[in-house]
Amino acid sequence: MHITHFIWQRLLGMAPGEIQSGDTLWLLSPRQHMPLLAQRRALMLLNRCRLFAILFSVLTPAWAVIDLLTLPYPLSLQLTALRLLVTAAFIALALWQPMDGRLRSAYRGIALLFATPTLFYIASHLLLRRYHLEGLSAAIGAGYAFLPFVLLAGLAIFPLTLLESLAFASPVLLGFILAGLLDLSGANLPSFGGEFWLLSLLAGVSAIAGISQLAFIIVLVHQAIRDPLTGVFSRRSGEEMLGLLQMQAQRARQPLSLAFIDLDHFKAINDRYGHLAGDQVLRHFAALMLARLRRSDILVRWGGEEFVLLMPGATREQAAQVIARLREQGLGERPDGSGLSASVGVAELWRDDCADWCALVDRADARMYQAKQAGRDRVVSTG
């Protein structure tokens, strides 16, 4: 616990209460990220990848003018040809990078973004080592050695986990090692070791910068998608989650169930005991549900005393069993100490032939009203 607090508050500059220390794993690997965070981060990565590609597509050919003016023939022409090829690759990446909000697309874009200049660095190194440059030409040629440093510094603009940072920095480091091995000798070994140490240090600093960005994104996403009273997902974020889960269910042909939960006689609690007491009942209900749900289940406050429980991967029968278990364990208490009850409607995307998530919610909502009309405190999953 002390280690996670140190990471959040000292290394990342987070104030106490801004983020949960249990979310530390989110900084190490993207596997723990919720779908909403993954989608929003993927879009941010894709946008920054495109921005980087546009910048490189402008700066890369511009430097060719300096090469033509300072470097000997035919080296200058060879480097210019390489630059034009690299520029074409950056332009293609900027124009045809799909903005679909998927991490796979973001990974592919960043990999191409860093692989292109890394290959250019190795190819230019092979060309430059064949010439003995002096004076201004030697200074311009030496500038090519700084390309790996520029790349790893640029990695800092991407909000990446630790594993992602290592994955994208490793090819650049390996490219530097490969280029260094071509000229490695006993005389320049200390120089190469110092440069590699500095490059590794820069990779570490960029990784910390990316992790810090990710930490603040996590904070902002938590604040934006949560209902401030109960801490569960808000309706707006719940609708986003439903859209994502619907696409995933349709792509993989997996079940997606939903339970529409309406707390019985909740208005009477507010009228008799006041809204503060009603708020406490809602918070207690939400806390109980969150403690008992599966990790993949998602609880959304739909409005007032209405909640929607998303159960990806669960059939209608399995969803009904989950609701039955929750009701058996208890949904909480009313201010007078009596048990809290709810009317619940359950629906499933495929089993109920729902065209989209809106139809799924409507079907569960209609069944919830059937439960209320039948006397409340019950579950309706058919009809």
Describe the structure.
The chain has 383 residues and is α+β, with helices and mostly antiparallel strands. The protein folds into two domains: 2-224, no CATH class; 235-380, Alpha-Beta Plaits. It is 65% helix and 8% strand. The chain has helices at 2-11, 25-28, 35-62, 64-70, 75-96, 103-128, 135-143, 147-154, 162-183, 189-225, 235-252, 266-273, 275-292, 316-329, 357-373, and strands at 256-263, 298-303, 306-312, 342-348, 379-380. A five-stranded mixed β-sheet has the order 2-3-1-4-5, with helices on both faces. The radius of gyration is 28 Å and the shape is elongated.
Topology overview:
Blueprint: H1 2-11, H2 25-28, H3 35-62, H4 64-70, H5 75-96, H6 103-128, H7 135-143, H8 147-154, H9 162-183, H10 189-225, H11 235-252, E1 256-263, H12 266-273, H13 275-292, E2 298-303, E3 306-312, H14 316-329, E4 342-348, H15 357-373, E5 379-380
Parallel strand pairs: 4-5
Antiparallel strand pairs: 1-3, 1-4, 2-3
Helix pairs in contact: 3-5, 3-6, 4-5, 5-6, 6-9, 8-10, 9-10, 12-13
Question: What are the defining features of this structure?
Answer:
alpha+beta, five-stranded mixed sheet, 383 residues, 2 domains, 5 strands
Q: What would you say about this model in short?
A:
The protein is α+β, with helices and mostly antiparallel strands and 383 residues long. Helices cover 65% and strands 8% of the residues. It has helices spanning 2-11, 25-28, 35-62, 64-70, 75-96, 103-128, 135-143, 147-154, 162-183, 189-225, 235-252, 266-273, 275-292, 316-329, 357-373; strands at residues 256-263, 298-303, 306-312, 342-348, 379-380.
